[in-house]
Model the fold of this input.
Amino acid sequence: MEKLMEDLLEVQNLCIDFAGTAGGRKLDHVSFSVQKREFLCIVGESGCGKSITALAAMGLLPAGGRVTEGSILYAGRDLTRLSEKQLDEIRGRDITMIFQDALTSLNPVFTIGNQMIESVRAHNSEISRKEAAQRSVQLLEKVGLPDPETLMAKYPFVLSGGQRQRVMIAMALASDTKLLIADEPTTALDVTIQAQIMTLLRSLQQENGMSVLLITHDLGLVAQMADRVLVMYAGQIVESAGVHELFHAPTHPYTQALLKTVPSTLDGEERVLMSIPGNVPEDYEKISGCRFRERCAYAHAACQEPQELRDCRPGHCVRCVLAQENGHD
Done:
């Protein structure tokens, strides 16, 4: 895969703390970039910090959450330092986000048409309501929804989960977004609809030339969709690589363990799927060394020291003192 060089979004040494919680720090010096026209996936278990990273980029951290260090740069501006008014000029226009539960994201008391029209006009106030309605129909049709004129008059609760998620994607496209953040967008959908939604996202990404940041725990989706993958664990990035490199030469023990939990159509009857013992720790800041060492089969004394994310091959970084050129055998 040809390396994409131009960054659209750059996260630098981002730390996020939550006041009044047992595990105060939920993100610990996270750095990565999203490149133009790239499909980047962040993968990891629940509680590892994936969604918090996405919400920070949108300026939508839950109550008690705050950025204590680092920056999130978009078009030369640090999003963590902008006012709500300044953020509103970017989010929903240049950067948009869709969530895993579209029903809670859509307003139940307004029709799909009303919400689509408001989305179209949010960053183009000069357009008339009639023109916005026409644009809304076009967007609904673009995301594969049949009979969009009739759909405009319906309320969210009468739509299926897949239809609601398509509406959310249509709303995200209303402003010709540059970066679409999708946080577990297919979690509540059956496998067939999941495949349809992800195929739609990929085709729209290529057609519109936008970047996509997909937050997921589904390694099957990662293998199918990603250009590049970030693996997160306990508030840190533990491995970063191109998708082919990650699946063929995983280097961090956590990445290797994740891949061993995934079934394959090529598996023989003798293949036994493993599970990773233990859970993601909650009190991240109390762990001075490798945060995976209590669950790691390779752990030894050196793992009690702080681990740095370092290059193991060109374009492939890993946070593990034991990482070797070809990973663990």
User: Anything to note?
Assistant: Residues 43 and 217 are 5 Å apart (CA to CA). The first strand starts at residue 7 and ends at 18.
